[in-house]
Amino acid sequence: MTIDNNIYSINESLIPQKRIIIDTDSGIDDIISIIVSLKYDKSKLEAITVVEGNVSLKQGILNLCSLLDVNSLRDKKIPIYPGCDKPIIQNFNIEKPYSSFSNFHNMNSYSLHERNLITKHIQKEHAVLALIRMVTNEPNEFTIVCLGPLTNIALAIRLDPFFLSKVKNIIVMGGCLYAKGNSTRVTEYAFNFDPEAAHIVLTAAKQYSVDHPHKTQPKLTLVPWEVSVEQGLDWKFYDYLISTPPVNELTYLMKELNSIKELLFRKSHESIISRTISNVFHENKKNKQNNNKINNIIDNNEISTLTLFEDPLSVEDQIYTSNAVLQYQIDATKFIMSDLYTLVCALEPESIIKEYQDLDVDIELSGKYARGLTCIDWLGDGQKTLNARIILKVDKNIIKDILIQSFKQNKSLYLQKTPITSEPLITKLKSKL
């Protein structure tokens, strides 16, 4: 650190970095998360392992090759290890997310790169064997961030019973807190895609807790689907991210990747909000109740998308409704980046995590509707087998801050400026316009 006229300059080489392995099914959110892991100064991405999930294993590898072929990332020497191409018990009936939109998760379909893709990153070693090798050679060094189904991790645990004890920690985007699913009615996609894999990982984490009762934190951290829904980002922030200078190759890439997501969700989001405000207004008018917040948004009883979104940051706090279904639909059609929330929980846990609870978690393996359901011991009967730290609430301003730093290369807005506490606290929304 150098000091010059009260200006502090920090040598980036002195910033402690988290050694990260990302296990991914290479969907849109995964790709954005990987970009952040490559650009953020506290992240040291050392390997990517690929698993079938949002896309096929082959397509997932192509997506990653497309990403690492972007000019500003071509100097990154990140090994890619192909992993499992099907669940442990294959379910031929499982539907890929947004299957009617064949290009939804396919990077190469956007024609971003017409040249031949660089395939030097692809390794011959299987992802499961690579994971075991890396954590065995350097125990307690790597944080594994799981952004897809847990098939690779489960098989690593089966092949090496001491795998969990060699990992620093595992952060998983997976499961549902309150059975508000994004894959089936009650399940999150990754857990639904391979529930047996999730069961193996959760069971191993439970055994680890039993074998290491002195440990103050479970080896496994879960970031459930509802967390990113409840703390989703406003679409106006997305506009800022892709449109406000400096606009570069990565912001263009983000725009291309999210074009179908924007088509699917943004208009639905605006329509639901307009309908909600209209209903609240007319209900208040009928009951002769005055709601200043709503009245401030509505001009002469006329609601339009333009009027509604003139001041999105204030609107965000004004439209909450007592109708739980409408509220979920509003939240679930925001600009949601579930995988990024998971990555940032690994990189900046002290800053982003606002509420959490260590709990006993399992998964349902049968049932017509409940297969893949996350089963949480809310009553605390399993106090001796707390196998997962469940993230309940995050600070989305930290997400904004890291996106700005990674894609706009601007300085921090929120990090280290707001005191953060981590307090323990006891559909697929398939919108098609």
UniProtKB/TrEMBL annotation:
The keyword Ribonucleoprotein does not apply. Belongs to the IUNH family. GO terms for molecular function: hydrolase activity, hydrolyzing N-glycosyl compounds. Coiled coil: none annotated. Residues 20-397 form the Inosine/uridine-preferring nucleoside hydrolase domain. SUPFAM superfamilies: Nucleoside hydrolase (SSF53590). It comes from Neocallimastix californiae. It holds the Pfam family IU_nuc_hydro. It comes from the Eukaryota. InterPro entries: Inosine/uridine_hydrolase_dom, IUN_hydrolase, Ribo_hydro-like. Keywords: Hydrolase. This is Nucleoside hydrolase. PANTHER family: SI:CH211-201H21.5, SI:CH211-201H21.5-RELATED.
